[in-house]
Design brief:
This protein is α+β, with helices and mostly antiparallel strands and 299 residues long. It is built from 8 helices and 10 strands.
């Protein structure tokens, strides 16, 4: 029983309805006003109560009909309710007329953006980070947006921030394991994951997310300096590895070329000395100064 009641309360779907051309009804109302005034005038002169009554009735109906006129801009919809009951939605634009007893709630269907503030959260490894995103959204189902949530714009903001916090906890900021996606390195994948979660969360409000992207990503101030030093150290180590790898390749190429072209015959000790000298030249940071050896390696 409770489940059925809950489903009844939240089962709102947009029902398209048509609104009449406002200009046609405006012409009819003007004609009715003229007729009513004429009946009132001639009925008063002739002291005819039925004529006066008919004139008053026409004037009252015409005045009530004026409440049915409204306008809609392109990409705008109007939700109609009658004494608390949902009666449909029109997406026509222009000068329109509907039942004057309808309450009309206008909802924009245009694409809008929400820029979240920078949120301080913990990533997958527990490091405090700051993260923010921009969400491009629009109303897809006007009935859900109007009746299934209290305020769909506030709902969007709250759910966007909640989804962003949850997303940050699923990924490491950087320095992931092998084939592990990170917030900094896999922006497109993270953005797709954020949009997918937003689509699920915002569906209850009849809203769809056209796009979601990170706009700010940084370590929290309290660990930013430490993480910067770590990144610098990692960069130095990576550079050193590349330099050593290149130096070893060059030394190996030099030894093989010397042996192949029989430029000089080197024993193991001379090869070791040559390798040592070449590695110093290739890997050293300071300028190399040659030293002339007047003797031999054995003297």
């Amino acid at each position: 029983m409770n489940a059925d009641s809950s489903a009844t309360l939240t089962a709102h779907r947009e029902q398209p309805t048509q609104a009449a051309n406002g200009w046609v009804f405006l012409f009819g109302v003007v004609v009715a006003l003229i007729v009513g005034l004429a009946l009132l005038f001639f009925g008063g002169r002739s002291m005819s109560l039925p004529t006066v009554g008919a004139g008053l009735l026409i004037l009252v109906c015409s005045a009530i009909s004026l409440g049915g006129f409204f306008t809609l801009q392109p990409n705008e919809a109007a939700v109609f309710t009658l004494f608390g009951a949902y009666k449909g939605t029109t997406r026509e634009n222009g000068f329109l007329w509907a039942n004057p007893f309808f309450r009309k709630f206008k909802i924009s269907l245009r694409a809008r953006t929400y820029n979240s503030p920078a949120l301080k959260v913990n990533d997958k490894r527990g490091n405090p980070i700051e993260i923010a995103a921009v969400v491009v959204w629009r109303v897809q189902d006007t009935a859900q947006a109007r009746f299934d949530v209290d305020n769909f714009e506030t709902y969007i903001q709250t759910q966007s921030e909640s989804a962003l916090r949850h997303l940050a906890s699923l990924y490491a900021y950087d320095d992931g394991e092998d084939n592990e996606s990170t917030l900094r390195s896999n922006v497109d994948e993270v953005s797709r994951a954020l949009r997918t979660e937003l689509l699920e969360r915002l569906a209850k409000a009849g809203v769809t997310a056209d796009e979601a992207r990170l706009t700010h990503l940084a370590y929290a101030p309290e660990i930013a300096q430490a993480m910067l030093r770590r990144q610098q150290a990692e960069a130095v180590i990576a550079a050193r590895q590349k330099i050593v790898h290149g130096a070893v390749s060059m030394v190996d190429m030099a030894l093989r070329d010397l042996a192949a072209k029989q430029v000089v015959q080197l024993d193991d000790e001379r090869k070791a000395a040559m390798v040592s000298n070449l590695m110093v030249v290739q890997c050293g940071e300071s300028e190399v100064h040659p030293v002339i050896n007047a003797g031999t390696l054995y003297s």
